[in-house]
Structures are given as structure tokens and as C-alpha cells.
Amino acid sequence: MVSRVIPVKPFDLVIFGGTGDLARRKILPGLFRRFRAGQMPAGARVIGCARTAMDDAGFRDIARAAIAEFGGPERSDAAGLAAFLDRLAYVPIDVTGEDGWRDLAALVRADVVRAFYFSVAPRLFGPIAERLHLHAIADDDSRIVVEKPFGRDLRSAQELNAALAAHFGEGQIYRIDHYLGKETVQNLMAVRFGNVLFEPLWNNHYIDHIQITVAETVGVGGRGSYYDGAGAMRDMVQNHLMQLLCLIAMEPPARFEADAVRDEKLKVIRALQPVDPQDIVFGQYSGAPGSPSYRDDVENPASTSESFVALRCRIGNWRWAGVPFYLRTGKKMKARSSEIAVVFQKLGHTIFDEDMARHRNILSIRLQPNEGIDLQVTIKDPGPGGMRLLDVPLDLTFAEALGDQGEPAADAYERLIMDVIRGDQTLFMRGDEVEAAWAWTDPVIAGREERGDRPQPYDQGSAGPDDALMLMHRDGRRWRDIKG
Ligand code: NAD
Fold first, then answer.
1. For 236-282, what is each residue's pLDDT tens digit?
2. Mean per-residue pLDDT for 332-336?
3. How close is the Cα of 33 to the center of ligand 1, in Å?
4. What are phi and psi of 316, to 5 degrees?
5. Does 22 sit in the ligand 1 pocket, CB within 6 Å?
């Protein structure tokens, strides 16, 4: 089997916020892995930019320490690390001021791919875009990468889009949602659109419902004040869960190309119906012995922000009429698990002497941990004990068959950064998509505020508040177990 990796051209990747948490945790270790995989051609460089005054050597020390702390087994490759660090440079810039930009302009080369990663707070996106333009550091071929959160409502997202659009075309803007960089998300599209088996069944005639769960075991960590101002609806549902919903529900694009895919995703968001207040549950984790409550974690004893949300929504189009989509996400839950489950309908007629409601085909797409896709199928329980039926998972990721070429170690960030260098926007959110997602989310948040709904407490290590379970039970359905 021959591995086909699309090559990249020489590049200068400038990381604003190059000393920050995201750069140290994800971007620098990810770039080192790509370097070792031969995807940083001769002449490819990484330039860190942040406020701290230091030289190239200082930044290389930061990168070395970051790779030692957050890298994988490859960090023991001392020679490789030294060669990678040689590709790093640093320019101190306070991006709200005028100093340092000329130094950056002198360093960034005109004859390579130029990419600028805005790994800083969103309020700095506009100032950076403006100065890159003013100092002619970026041109019409350059790319910019921006991080979440992309706004906290429709209005602020529109303002961010406008600030970027003043200096960059939409074809140059790469809005990251790292869920889209997961191997399995792309495999979902390959499985769905590369096989004749699934697409004919992918509709309300054969699918009973779809569940999307993103459960975390961590609390709000060090992000308390940001998180408390956002809540799970803004922090998770508006972006990650909506993106997964789009990929699972979209119509087949005419080609696997950025705008063709994103046009179809946008149609899904626009077809989403408003959420009925009966169909949404907000939760907040309680304290447990030795483990603080949400309110303690965010140091806000009166907080009404949600650390959990579960909702039922519907997509108003022919394909999905009558098919509920159940979404849930939360912190301090029983396991760390992200999964999309496509639950097919039960058989119309059974020839077996069994309760066939027990047997369902379920396509489950796991994003973490143990990324993979499997299809639950019903077979005969082997052996001479008579005709008994058994449900077993059919592994569609074929890790064994693919051997090393499955490259499971590649992280979402490094994959997405390489797509930026290649100029492929397929796995990035377009401006109109983000705005449409906020246009759907805003009324859900506003409705809750108007009603004064308070979040329901839930136990740490549980599956969320009881009402979240009821959301499905009342429809005669069950959430899938949250398994790590
Ligand atoms: P951070 O606070 O750890 O780092 C911020 C970086 O920006 C630092 O390098 C700092 O020096 C630099 N900076 C701040 N003000 C500056 C200025 N005026 N001029 C130049 N540099 C300046 O933040 P982070 O966690 O790395 O997050 C960066 C962005 O990525 C944020 O938008 C955040 O929401 C987003 N994000 C982070 C994570 C994560 O895991 N850390 C995950 C998803 C999204």
C-alpha cells in the first residue's frame, strides 16, 4: 500500500502568541511532528511573535521545553529536535503598538507561502490584520489562521469578520475548529461519500435519530472567568457540536472542495429549527468531597452559567424531517468521550423469534478517546445453540489492515496547519457559517435568559442532570453510555 501525502511548499509560519499556552501545548509540538514526518521542506521556517523581549535562542528554549512537556515519543529524537529548532526565529512585538513590525517585515520572505497564526485573544485579531497589511508583511496570497472563540454572539462575530475582511479575502482566512482536524471526522466523510452502502440509508426512512455527545472529565481549569462568561452553549455547542452536526447531516457536496463542502454545511445550519424550551436542559456540576463545585471553580457563588447542556433539535428539510438530533456536552462527567451515534430504525418485520427492538444497527463515530468508526451489526451468535442473535461492532477504521500508515499520532492541530500551508480550506469554518451558527444559538441563549431558567445541579462523574435523561426517555429512547 503506497501512502500518498500531498507535499507542501516552503513556508514562513508566523505565530502571534508564540509563547502562549496553545502554542506550547499544541502548535509547536505538532510542527515538530510534521518536521519529523518530512513535511517541513528545506526553507520552511516558524517565526514566533509575542510581547516578551528575547532573541531566537530564547524562543528555541521555550519550544524545546514545550516539546519536552507536551510532545509524544518523538521528543527523544535529540538530533531531529536540534534540526527543527534551527528553523525557529523570534521577533518581539506588542501587536497593539507600532514597534517591531519592520523587523518582522525584513524577516518574512516574499517568495514562500506566508501564513500568520493568530494564537492570541480575539480582540487582537483586528490590530494584527491591520498592521500586517500596513507594513506589507502579508499580501493577497498570504493566509491567516484564527482561533476560537470567534465572537460571543452574532454581532461580535460579524465585527470580527469585518475586522478581518478589511484586510484579507475570505479565501485567505482559516477559522480553526480543531474537531474538524480529527482523523475520524475526515474518515466519516470518506465512509459516507466513498461507499455505496450508506448514502441510500442516510435519511428519515432508515435513521431513527442521531446523538452527539462531547463529554469531558475536566472542570473549567484555569479558564474560569472566560468560561463563566460563556457557558457550554457558547463554548462547545455553537462551534464543535454544530460542526459535527453539519458533517453528519449535510447533503453530498458535488466535489470534495472547500466551498462545495461549506455550502452544504451552511444549508444545514440554516435549516435548523429553533429549539423549543421543553427540549433543552442546562446543568451545573455540584461539589463533591475534595472536588470543588462549578461555582467554586469559577469563584462566582451566584453563577448561573451552564457547564452542561443537552438539547433536542430538528433539521427542517426533506432528508431529516421527523428525525431528532440529540446533542449533549458537559464538564466533570463520568468519562472523557466524544461520539456521534447514528441510530438506525428497527426492522419493519422480523423472521426471528427475538425481540428485534433490542437489535439495532448503530454507526458510531468516536472522536476521543480511541478514535474510530464502527457499525453495530446483528449476526448469529456462533455455535450450535440454536438461532440466537448477537450485536457486534464492525470496525470501519481497519487499524490493523492499515498498519503504520494510519498515522494515529497526528494531532488535529498539525493536520490543520499543514492544510493552511497547502491552501486547503475544506476543514475550516467560513465566515457565513460562523455567523449562521450564532444566529441559531443567540435566541437559545436569549430565551433562557428571558425565562430565567437556572441550571440544574448534577453530580460530578455522572451523565448530567436527570432531566437530560428524560429528554430522551420521554421519546422512548436512551442516551448511549458515556464510556472512556
Ligand atoms: P495565552 O494567554 O496563554 O497566550 C497568549 C499569547 O499572546 C502569549 O504568547 C502572549 O505573549 C501573547 N500576547 C498577548 N497580548 C499580546 C500583545 N499585545 N502583543 C503580542 N502578543 C501578545 O493564551 P492561549 O491559551 O495560548 O490562547 C490563545 C488563543 O487561542 C485564544 O484566542 C484562545 O481562546 C485560543 N484557544 C486556546 C486553546 C488552548 O488550549 N490554550 C484552545 C482553543 C483556543
1. 999 999 999 999 999 999 999 999 999 999 999 999 999 999 999 99
2. 97
3. 22
4. -85, 75
5. yes
Question: Within this chain, do residues 95 and 228 fall inside the same structural domain, yes or no?
Answer: no
Residue 170 lies in a domain: no
Read off the CATH number of the domain in which 31 is found: 3.40.50.720
Which ligand 1 atom minimizes the distance to the CA of 93? 20
Q: Which of 167, 178, 209, 240 is catalytic?
A: 240
C-alpha cell at 317: 428539510
Q: Is the CB of 119 under 6 A from ligand 1?
A: yes
Decide if 209 is catalytic: no
CATH number at residue 465: 3.30.360.10
- Is residue 192 domain-shared with residue 244, that is, in the same domain? yes
Same domain, 136 and 185: no
Residue 3 banded pLDDT, cuts 50, 70, 90: low
Q: How many structural domains are present in the chain?
A: 2
pTM: 0.94
Kindly state whether residue 185 falls inside one of the protein's structural domains: yes
- The region of weakest confidence among 27-31, 113-117, 386-390 is 386-390
* Candidate from 21, 239, 417 with most ligand 1 atoms within 8 A of CB, to mutate: 21
| Residue 148 CB less than 6 A away from ligand 1 | yes
Which of 103, 123, 147 is the last residue in one of the domains? 147
Quote the domain boundaries for residue 393. 180-409+431-473
Residue 255 belongs to some domain of the structure: yes
How far is ligand 1, taken at its centre, from the CA of residue 440, in Å? Answer: 28
